[in-house]
Specification:
alpha+beta, six-stranded mixed β-sheet, disordered N terminus, Neutral Protease, domain 2, 19 helices, 635 residues, Serine Threonine Protein Phosphatase 5, Tetratricopeptide repeat
């Protein structure tokens, strides 16, 4: 049931505009809004809201700062006298209106997660404010890398990570996923370096180091992105391409060769790709996520460069965000599953379309295994309610909600709906959902309303309210969760059982099997996943001698193997475990490996020793997780 909230809501941090459905891409005018509380911003868009940003910045690798001016076009109520921005660690130097007149401003009290509100006094009819500022050298969104921390080793590198609420650490902005704006930018960088943003992008270095960007589609602040470094470009098709450091470019182009086919498969499923080009940039290893769906320019980890295109489902995932997340966005971080659950579902459908049902079912089974483990862990923790799809993150870092629940429980809920209502009907609903809600935000409750009307009622199907109580508002994993089936995984389990029963590994695999790569990455992951934690040192040695897991180029397989190495005290792998942790910043791999080490006193000692070496290479997103895990306090 939709709740109509009053304009003044005691105790709420702010009231957010949620705009009604827009049936066409070309009509981006806001219609009548409904109001929703977002607890992770100071902004009060019911009084004044930004609509366009003109950003001019200078990038200084010497001071690790951005010196910038942000000029905002805004809409304000006739009776409003102020606009509030989110900031975190910014040095605000001056604020002016469109005529250059100084405006009175005040920075409020600092909150550990939210930063400080910037309140600017407005005259009646003010339509523009200009904010000149400098970022902190320790800005949480900005990762400054030395040349030694890059693949090429010649030039430094900068990249941003704005999700969830880190954009405010490099731009003063109304930092909510429910507030959208267009932007243009002029960025000056050291000569010889390339600058890229989540916008129209250059493909070659500009000799004067000045770059101009335009994003003509309204986006939320968490999709603001910037990368600067020794970067080259290779076109893959008329609308896809890849950026990377020159030494990685060919490997990246090979890995992403099927990218245009992915775009075509996605469009066939759920309608036109509405962002023009789709490019990917492979970032240095410290990037904390697998990928980040910045419009027009997905940021990707180099850990997906396995050399055999076996990990490209990550690209399908980030591409799918061009519909679920970028086009239709969760209104608040409590509704995060609307971004990620839809995207995992869409990703699986893309992979099924390109590589077949058995391939996507292997991915689904791996997801289900990880989901069950995470559900079990969260239910034992401080916040068992975090296993609900609809989250309650007030007073907490929204990163706490970035778990397998949003991604995989969300996926299995949508898969359950597909199986319950029929794929044809469900696909029609999703295509309509993306089209009708393009460039707007969505709450869980508004989604349920549309689901009832446009899927169940439209197809004369009964509405089951218990469905939402168990899947969306209930703890844990429902008993009616879909169960993927893979014949290939069944065969993997047979081999694992034979091995554990005593059959030598040399009898289960021939040299020809290894040469022909008989098993896919997903089969190897399942094999390692079904092996017990209590493997003996001898068993580990036998497996390693046969398959060389300790030196795998595949980061997914390597992580699964290193978990066994820690559990079995397989010291032969420890040096490469350290190398991997020092040179990899992806939180998905770091968190389970450090968590496994801290289970024993000697393991915790090893973890701390490695972390002291590795921490300078990690992004804030990763260190904020691992610091807590190790009870580590930086000097």
């Amino acid at each position: 049931m939709k709740k109509h909230l009053p304009l003044i809501w005691p105790g709420a941090i702010w009231l957010l505009f949620l705009f009604a459905c827009q049936p066409k891409e070309t009509n981006l005018t806001h219609k009548q809004p409904m109001l929703v509380i977002d607890n992770h911003t100071y902004a009060q868009p019911a009084s004044a809201v930004i609509t366009h940003l003109n950003w001019k910045a200078n990038v200084s690798f010497e001071t690790h700062t951005l010196e910038a001016t942000a000029i905002y076009t805004l809409e304000q109520k006739d009776d409003s006298h102020k606009i509030i921005f989110d900031t975190n660690g910014l040095n605000i130097e001056q604020v002016k209106d469109a005529k250059g007149n100084a405006l009175s401003f005040k920075l409020g009290k600092e909150d550990p997660f939210l930063g400080r509100p910037l309140t600017i006094e407005l005259s009646p009819g003010t339509t523009q404010v200009s904010i000149t500022y400098t970022t902190s050298p320790n800005a949480e969104a900005l990762q400054w890398l030395t040349p030694a921390q890059t693949a090429g080793g010649k030039q430094p590198f900068l990249f941003t990570q704005s999700e969830a609420i880190l954009a405010r650490s490099w731009v003063p902005v109304q930092d909510s996923p429910g507030i959208r704006f267009t932007y243009e930018a002029e960025v000056t960088v050291p000569k010889g370096m390339l600058a890229l943003m989540s916008a129209t992008n250059p493909t070659e270095v500009n000799p004067d180091g000045v770059y101009h960007f335009t994003m003509d589609k309204p986006i939320p602040a968490y999709l603001l992105a910037l990368a600067v470094g020794d970067i080259a470009y290779q076109q893959l098709s008329n609308r896809t391409g890849v950026y990377a450091e020159p030494s990685l470019l060919q490997a990246a182009a090979y890995e992403f060769e099927d990218m245009d086919q992915m775009v075509q498969a996605a469009e066939h499923l759920y309608g036109p790709y509405q962002w023009g080009v789709y490019d990917v940039i492979v970032l240095p290893p410290s990037f904390p996520f697998g990928g980040m769906e910045n419009p027009k320019l997905t940021f990707a980890t180099p850990t997906i460069l396995a050399g055999d295109r076996s990990l490209v489902s990550l690209v399908a995932h980030e591409l799918a965000h061009s519909w679920s997340g970028n086009l239709v966005t969760n209104a608040t971080w409590d509704d995060f599953w609307l971004n990620e659950g839809f995207t995992v579902y869409f990703e699986q459908r893309i992979m099924e379309s390109l590589y077949g049902r058995d391939y996507s079912e292997m991915l689904a089974l791996l997801s289900l295994k990880g989901l069950k483990e995470e559900v079990e862990a969260i239910l034992k923790g401080e916040h068992p309610e975090d296993t609900q799809l609809k989250l309650h993150l007030k007073g907490r870092n929204p990163d706490d909600g970035m778990t397998a629940i949003a991604y995989d429980k969300g996926y299995f809920f949508l898969r359950y709906l597909e199986e319950k209502t029929g794929r044809k009907q469900f696909d029609a609903f999703l295509a309509e959902y993306f089209s009708n809600n393009a460039f707007t935000s969505m709450t869980t409750e508004a989604f349920i309303e549309q689901l009832n009307k446009n899927l169940f009622v439209k197809n004369s199907l009964p509405i089951d309210t218990a469905l939402y109580n168990t899947w969306i508002y209930g703890n844990g994993l429902p008993a009616n969760c879909p169960q993927p089936v893979s014949d290939k995984f069944k065969k993997v389990e047979e081999v694992a059982n034979q091995y554990l029963a005593g059959t030598p590994v040399t009898q289960l695999f021939t040299p020809e099997d290894l040469m022909s790569k008989k098993w896919s990455t997903h089969e190897w992951l399942h094999f390692l996943g079904v092996l017990p934690d209590s493997l003996s040192y001898q068993q580990m040695e036998q497996l390693d001698n046969m398959f060389e897991f300790t030196y795998s180029r595949n980061s997914e397989i390597l992580t699964a193997w290193m978990l066994h190495a820690i559990q079995s005290h397989y010291t032969t792998a420890y040096q490469n475990l350290e190398n991997f942790l020092v040179n990899t910043g992806r939180r998905k791999f770091l968190a389970p490996l450090y968590a496994e080490m801290v289970k024993t006193p000697e393991g915790k000692t090893m973890a701390l020793n490695i972390y002291q070496k590795a921490r300078p290479n990690y992004h804030y997103v990763a260190t904020s997780t691992i610091d807590k895990m190790l009870n580590y306090t930086a000097n």
